[in-house]
Amino acid sequence: xxxxxxxxxxxxFKFVLKSLLAFGGNGEVLKLKKTLNKKYSGEAFLFYKGxxxxxxxxxxxxxxxxxxxxxxxxxxxxxxxAIKKAGLKPIPIDIDFSLNFTTTNFKxxxxxEDIKALIVQNTLGYPCEIEEILKICKEKGIILIEDLAHxxxxxxxxxxxxxxxxxxxxxxxxxxxxxxxxxxxxxxIRNKKYQLRFNRSQKNIKEIFGNPSxxxxxxxxxxxxxxxxxxxxxxxxxNLLHFILKKxxxxxxxxxxxxxxxxxxxxxxxSLINYQFDNFDKELKHRREIAEIYKEELDSKILNNEIIxxxxxxxxxxxxxxxxxxxxxINYLKTKGVYVSDIWYDFPIAPKKYLAEENIENKLSNSKRxxxxxxxxxxxxxxxxxxxxxxxxxxxxxxK
Length: 400
Ligand SMILES: Cc1ncc(COP(=O)(O)O)c(C=O)c1O
Prior knowledge:
The protein is of the alpha/beta class.
């Protein structure tokens, strides 16, 4: 058995061919925008990265410089950075075992800071307390942004689809996301108030921003093929190939390149994203079925009720378990061909090396503790039900 958490997790041979042959055409851009406009009831703008879409979304709000923007305090550094790049002040809110912040913690933050906008993340696809959050946002005039990097296709407890509640919806189509087009991001302006400002100041993004460099695009284009080869040949040189490609920086990574400026999303990425949208329901069903197996088969002492109760609503990007001796389990699984060491997030705002701000972990004590014990199991299309059962057996044996 060879199982990987990431490393081209969403690709099969058909996708590898599609990515190599994808050239796009303007029809693909229009098709993607149409899908997003309809699904999230607004106007979509596309970017090379989700983080750029988030910065752009925040800039379009025209908030005074250094206004406070609250966000889930268990996230990727790029979210924190996107807020900073928009000239605003990032205020993380501590989470609990639901992997989202509670309404109580949100209210506490409101007592301390004058929050102008809030980003909800629905970590790994598991829904936050949106009804209460929305009520508070409306009362206080806080702009609500739904970040769908983890949770596209998921539902809230009120059964409404995630991304159809807030003022703006932001998506990421990057490697290992539910809708994986190798790279890509979008903002859908749902509240017309912001749509007007957006259009007036930035009429046609394509005319204003450049494309990612040819080198960046070539690395992305080859990423599905290279990761497919690495995985298929893992025991007979694939491992070495992976090492070399990483060292020589030839393998596309989520953090690569000069992405400090806004970049367009070229057409060929859109054709891949459209393909993934065409298979979206099947993908979500598969992830849910795999998560159900983990939920049923794993020892309940490493599960959390606040997670497992929501599997049927979640997009199940990954399935989290909580183990005290995480390294031991990771190493054990590695000996059995299960590679799950890629933990988003091993620090409240991860990876830690990017975060220059001190003291953040003091404010995020729950997030810190959770980041030390969480281990995410794969639910992607390359995990069969049989493999999921085998993973459960291995884990149960190791923690016994
Ligand atoms: C919660 C969250 N939001 C937004 C993003 C931005 O996505 P992208 O990699 O497309 O910039 C990420 C990236 O991993 C993320 O984890």
